[in-house]
Amino acid sequence: MHNKSVAELSRELESGKVSSVELTQQFLDRLKAEDGKYNSFITISEEQALAEARAADELRAAGKATAWTGVPFAHKDIFCTNGIRTTCGSKMLENFVPPYDATVTANFKAAGAVCLGKTNMDEFAMGSSNESSFYGAVTNPWGLSSGDKRVPGGSSGGSAAAVAARLVPAATGTDTGGSIRQPAALCGITGLKPTYGRVSRYGMIAFASSLDQGGPMARTAEDAALMMNVMAGYDPKDSTCIDREVPDYTATLNEPLKGLKIGLPKEYFSDQLSPAMEEQVRNAIREYEKLGATVKEVSLPNARLAIAAYYVIAPAEASANLSRFDGVRYGYRCEDPKDLMDMYTRTRAEGFGTEVKRRILVGTYALSAGYFDAYYLKAQKVRRLIQQDFINAFKEVDVLMSPVSPTPAFKQGEKNTDPVSMYLEDVFTIAINLAGIPAMSVPAGLVDGLPVGLQIIGDYFSEARLLNAAHQFQQVTDWHQREPQ
Ligand code: GLN
């Protein structure tokens, strides 16, 4: 069962060949037996999962099932889950049990899905390797057989590793600068960052609120579409969520791609990309030509400024968002504070890890009087130029294609002492968040036995088209079905 997709598991349940309780127990047993190798889960919520499975079986018996009723999945530990600890990868929230559900959590519950637990992540979603988690690094299931421990990418590395290792068929992720797409690429799975405002951020612990967006991580584009059917939609509890009709994302998966106009941003095929990676990405694009698409070069002249702008804007927003973790209302509080100031300073010094502190310092500096205009305001102006580049490109083409990451999964410890080399992991993904447009990562090849992702970037609210393009590719290739040894 663990090799089946969400769509297949849904059909198994529908046919009555297996009950949700049986399926859930199988997945839980496998998860408990295997996850020691990957550390992809922070919390396994066995009791709640079995209760949800029993309820799902009853719903199905009553003829009230949806595609998700009784299907197991997992949440990134950034989504609040009522009664289940939600840590965001931080010591700060080690004992935080939310008294409410995130809207995304509530949506999966309403669809009858069975949440097995909460997946590991970089602390407060800051990172590209899952090494900044207070709960330990996650190991990529790929490359393990050669004795190397490789990173799964980040920050949704637990979700990506768990899906790749077949511990769950699908998991939620969030993407502020690449955190769905880059781990999906490094673990050989399919991930989608939706348009900013398509998926509610209510109850999703904030990192950089103008960039954060939740989305699906699964093995196939079809499963990602099934997840989007549950995740997307207007939510009055998130003031940036957009009130716009949600299509059935599975309905257009089989549209032919003949005539699809693909643009290749020349700035994304630069010398930052290794030749072996470039070859895999170009092979994938040739598959699209065989499916009837046309390809032309386009330019995103301001893309080279994206990392610099992001590493002002994201830390600035983070420094404000994380000010709430002060020992008063949430989570960790230092022992025996002498006075209020001592409590604030020691709580934050002890509760946050190195990378989070680095971001808070950078963000506070960029927002301070005297530097606001030079850094924050300037970065916002650059952001607008980057957005305009994409708007211009989509006047000429339907989608853009590029690599997701400059290299395949790197070794644990290789980059975590050099923050800038870690930040450069997102050189092909970050501009998309600044512009607010959607993009996918689709398994598209192997380099040295490690997965390579193809990035498909679309105009605002073009998720259905991206999923269609990914699904058609998956009908003629089998990269998404490859298993780590
Ligand atoms: N790697 C980027 C960062 O560290 C993006 C993280 C994310 O998308 N959450 O900020």
TrEMBL record:
It catalyses: L-glutamyl-tRNA(Gln) + L-glutamine + ATP + H2O = L-glutaminyl-tRNA(Gln) + L-glutamate + ADP + phosphate + H(+). Belongs to the amidase family. GatA subfamily. InterPro entries: Amidase (IPR000120), Amidase_CS (IPR020556), Amidase_dom (IPR023631), AS_sf (IPR036928), GatA (IPR004412). The keyword Hydrolase does not apply. The gene is gatA. It comes from Marinobacter profundi. Heterotrimer of A, B and C subunits. The active site is at 76 (charge relay system), 155 (charge relay system), 179 (acyl-ester intermediate). Residues 22-467 form the Amidase domain. Its EC number is 6.3.5.7. GO terms for biological process: translation. HAMAP family: GatA. GO terms for cellular component: glutamyl-tRNA(Gln) amidotransferase complex. Allows the formation of correctly charged Gln-tRNA(Gln) through the transamidation of misacylated Glu-tRNA(Gln) in organisms which lack glutaminyl-tRNA synthetase. The reaction takes place in the presence of glutamine and ATP through an activated gamma-phospho-Glu-tRNA(Gln). Gene3D superfamilies: Amidase signature (AS) domain (3.90.1300.10). This is Glutamyl-tRNA(Gln) amidotransferase subunit A. The keyword Transferase applies. Coiled coil: none annotated. GO terms for molecular function: ATP binding; glutaminyl-tRNA synthase (glutamine-hydrolyzing) activity; transferase activity. Keywords: ATP-binding, Ligase, Nucleotide-binding, Protein biosynthesis, Transferase. Pfam families: Amidase (PF01425).
